[in-house]
Specification:
By secondary structure, this protein is α/β, with parallel strands linked by helices. The protein has one domain (4-153): 5'-nuclease (Rossmann fold), CATH 3.40.50.1010. The protein has 8 helices and 5 strands. It has helices at residues 10-15, 22-37, 48-55, 62-70, 79-90, 101-110, 127-139, 150-153; strands at residues 4-7, 43-47, 74-75, 115-117, 146-148. A 5-stranded parallel beta sheet has the order 3-2-1-4-5. Helix 3 (48-55) runs antiparallel to helix 4 and helix 5 (79-90) packs across helix 6 (101-110). The mean pLDDT is 93.
Length: 158
């Protein structure tokens, strides 16, 4: 069975990045390379939470970001997912925004995704948080997904 990857909001946002700072251009290039050339090797899923985040406000290429996410199967936020979000907030694992990072991690964990793919290196793909995430998920009896960026999944070019 192919590796399952949960795509959170920063992935379509990076794919359709409009910022010109070098770090954002690099993220866009790596995201596009992974999505366009290597995504087919994986089972990619997302959630309604991503769609809702992309619908908020008015930002550049919003329609394109939503279209990017349209063909991706969506995981459901069950009562168990909501309980896990509350536990993450209670354990100070994630910020208290119930629709944000805690929800993405809970969805990936409860649905046993192999990888949570993100450019959020503050709250998710952060080596300082890995141990805390592992401990809390183990206490909750949950799977611990690898939390990676698209760059980390790129296959070397020969």
């Amino acid at each position: 069975m192919p590796t399952s990857i949960y795509i959170e909001t920063t992935i379509p946002s990076a794919y359709y990045n409009t910022r010109l700072e070098p770090e954002f251009v690099a993220q866009q290039n790596w995201t596009r390379e992974w999505w366009d050339e290597q995504r087919h090797r994986y089972t990619v899923v997302s959630s309604l939470a991503v769609i809702e985040e992309l619908q908020e406000g008015n930002h550049p290429l919003q329609a394109e970001k939503l279209a990017f996410s349209a063909g991706v199967p969506l995981l459901q936020a069950s009562e168990r997912v909501k309980e896990v979000v509350e536990a993450y907030v209670r354990h100070h694992l994630m910020p208290s925004d119930p629709g944000g990072d805690a929800l993405h991690l809970a969805l990936a964990s409860v649905h046993q995704c192999d990888i949570l793919l993100t450019w959020n290196c503050r709250h998710l793909a952060n080596y300082k948080k890995v141990g805390h995430i592992r401990r809390v998920n183990e206490q909750l009896g949950l799977h611990v997904p690898a939390i990676l960026t698209p760059f980390e999944l790129l296959e070397p070019k020969d």
